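Hi R.,

As promised on Friday, here is the backbone we talked about, encoded as structure tokens. Could you run it through your design pipeline when you get a chance and send me back a sequence?
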């Protein structure tokens, strides 16, 4: 009994420490939520300078670094497909590459909801087609996982290089027409993994045409053909592609595009080449 009495003060002190930590966490969370609401109010009212001041003062975010907000009005408009609201926010100067705490951008949201018009507006405003979340998810992966052929094709037109040299601990991916990367996605799933699990062939064919690696493996060491439905048309196409070498024309196109690099792909029409060849290089 005396031992329990002696240990009780220490237990009470330990409990007080935990309570203090919890109180501090709740206070910081309250401050963060209050600042987010205040910033949201300023953005909606068009007072971008005050919203930027709050972000810079409390979060150290400069104008070129992206938004600190966990969920900005731009994210909401993109996720709900509200094109007019999206254009209004962009016209007010809101950052098209605003990120949440998980590095999710409005373009991620638009592609996840298959809102092609919103995605196109964001891309035209300078959205990063290669934006990667902390889980390694890109807009293309979202589009493929939702079976959105229209968003996938749009991203291919604005994309990045076919092969992305990732320097992040989490995997990446994307597709490639003006070069979107088609290699890596969530948990090392590539967009091709995501597309292979859908019943349609259009996205699968698009990704293969733009150089997706058919032998890429995820964390479970499964290839896209391994995650496709057994005896499905998708599985048969993947097996056929696996057994058939790419044509010399296709290999040359991929090589030329890789050599030029994504930032210069828009200059293809200025090359002294026949129009037919220019269209071929641009997948037209």
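Update: got your reply. Pasting your designed sequence below so it's all in one thread:
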């Amino acid at each position: 009994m005396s031992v329990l009495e002696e240990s009780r003060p220490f237990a009470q002190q330990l409990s007080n420490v935990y309570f203090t930590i919890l109180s501090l966490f709740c206070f910081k969370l309250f401050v963060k939520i209050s600042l987010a609401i205040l910033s949201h109010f300023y953005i909606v009212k068009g007072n971008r300078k005050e919203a930027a001041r709050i972000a810079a003062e409390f979060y150290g975010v400069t104008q070129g670094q992206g938004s600190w907000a966990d969920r900005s009005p731009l994210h909401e408009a993109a996720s709900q497909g509200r094109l007019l609201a999206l254009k209004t926010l962009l016209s007010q100067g809101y950052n098209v590459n605003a990120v949440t705490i998980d590095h999710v951008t409005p373009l991620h949201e638009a592609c996840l909801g298959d809102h092609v018009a919103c995605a196109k507006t964001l891309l035209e405003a300078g959205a990063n087609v290669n934006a990667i979340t902390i889980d390694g998810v890109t807009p293309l992966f979202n589009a493929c996982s939702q079976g959105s052929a229209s968003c996938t094709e749009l991203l291919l037109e604005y994309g990045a290089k076919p092969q992305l040299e990732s320097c992040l601990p989490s995997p990446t991916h994307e597709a490639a027409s003006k070069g979107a990367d088609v290699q890596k996605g969530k948990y090392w799933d590539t967009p091709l993994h995501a597309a292979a699990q859908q019943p349609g062939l259009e996205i699968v064919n698009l990704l293969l045409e733009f150089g997706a690696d058919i032998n890429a493996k995820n964390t479970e060491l499964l290839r896209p053909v391994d995650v496709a439905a057994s005896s499905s048309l998708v599985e048969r196409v993947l097996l056929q592609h696996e057994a058939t070498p790419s044509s010399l024309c296709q290999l040359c196109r991929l090589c030329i595009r890789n050599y030029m690099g994504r930032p210069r792909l828009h200059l293809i029409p200025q090359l002294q080449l026949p129009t037919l060849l220019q269209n071929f290089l641009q997948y037209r």
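One thing I noticed while checking it: The first helix runs from residue 2 to 44.

Thanks again,
M.
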